[in-house]
Write a structure and sequence with these properties.
The protein has 511 residues and is an alpha/beta fold. The protein has helices at residues 22-35, 72-84, 138-143, 146-156, 172-181, 201-208, 210-224, 238-254, 272-279, 309-320, 357-361, 391-396, 414-428, 434-451, 457-470, 474-489, 491-498; strands at 12-16, 40-44, 55-60, 63-68, 93-95, 187-192, 228-233, 259-262, 304-307, 327-328, 331-332, 334-341, 347-352, 371-374, 380-382, 404-408.
Amino acid sequence: MTVSQDAPDGPVVRVAAGSTHRADASAVAEAAREAAETTTVRETGPTGAEALEPLLLVTTAEGTAFHARPSPDAVADAVAAAEDGTAADGADAFVAAADHGDGSALPTPEDGPLSVGRRRALRRCGWADPADPPAESLRETVRDDPEGARTAMRRLGLLGRGRGDARADEPVAGGWETAREAEGDSVLVVNANDADERNRTDRTLTEGDAGGVVDAAMAVGHLLDAEDVVVYAGEESLATERLSAAVSRYRDEHGEAPQMSVGPDRYIAGEPTMALESLEGNDRLEARLRPPGPETHGLHGRPTVIHTPRTLLQVREALLRPENFDGDDADPGTRLLTVTGEVDAPATVELPTGASLRTAAAAVDRETTKMAIVGGQFGGVTRRLDHAVSAPALDGANLGTEGVVELFGDDRCALATVGSRARFASEENCGRCVPCREGTKQLTDLLRDIYAGDYDDDVVRELTRTMRTTSTCDFGRSAARTVETAMTAFEAEFEAHAEGRCPSGQCESKL
């Protein structure tokens, strides 16, 4: 085991957890402080592996021992052992075999959920104080040669990540150039308001490395020659709390910082143009027609670039550590995925874009899967997990790239699952365009009719085609995708319901 450079003067105990286990993490941290004599105790953010949280990390000169969900007695024993020089002896501990490197990133164990994928955007999550600016500032790195950084991003072809990014699955450098060439003072908006509870990707980053997100945002703002950088987050969340703290600390250290703004806790509020509506103070959120896009006519009519935390930390990694930047040539870098559904605990992992969905599924305890929904609230339905996680591969399979993989077993009904999501779409859409507003209502009714024996495959498919090709924003287009892909993957189940049978047994009371 290599010597950690993070604890030269004594043991360091970290308690890593996100908002789901915040109360438990506070109790673990308090138990550690009560037991500590020479040990430094720090509370950090989530690692992405919720099954392990709260996670106690005990770092000594021998390395780091990981204790998952420790009891108060186990915490006291772990701290005492660290101070005695036997930190890895606990029966519930497993030891990170990876090199600590410069001590700035979470060391990776050889097995378990933390061993899945590569921790690049996630590198500080669970290890650093979430609100602290990184020691290596990207803003300072690009200050002297902004054109060189812009050129590097153009050559790399990095794509935007997540539905909240205005350049989702498109090269970010193109949006930067458009905004810089447009008339008016440009703005960068950090869209950290994703209210899809399934998707823990941006939430893991903002709860675990808000300081890194703010540093990357200020760097990109500099590359855009932006007059303003705005962080847009949800109401009353741990992510917002830590972003606010990170903004304050960045201002204290550098004399400048982004502005903070909060938006409603609604699914539609994370759509890029509806985020702009919220930032402008409009009570009614509606998707904006495009063109013109935000890069030419955005916040208060100014050229506006909108990126998610995932995108910004990809930019940070690409410019600071280009030697590690790989993945699919058409989608370079890594993709964050939250694996959830019928699992004991969700896990957020980071994979090179050439890896498969099956690799992500290895981070959770689920042996068999009947179906997966890939892409969040309105993801695509599939029976297979052998798709690459790159945007072109997922798009080619009619799956979503939003960063969620939901796994379901044999007792999950495909019709009931997509029916509930169609109903959500009919209730939560913004109402701006007819194909989405009326199409989601009609789609919900057509799916209900199947239970009464009325199933017309062609009518349903024509409606989903219309929604997919004519809706103003991704809300209507992706709502159609969920039903389309389910009908293709589970055609026999749809027909069975029309005949009065639910093969999974979930819908017996409706038939």
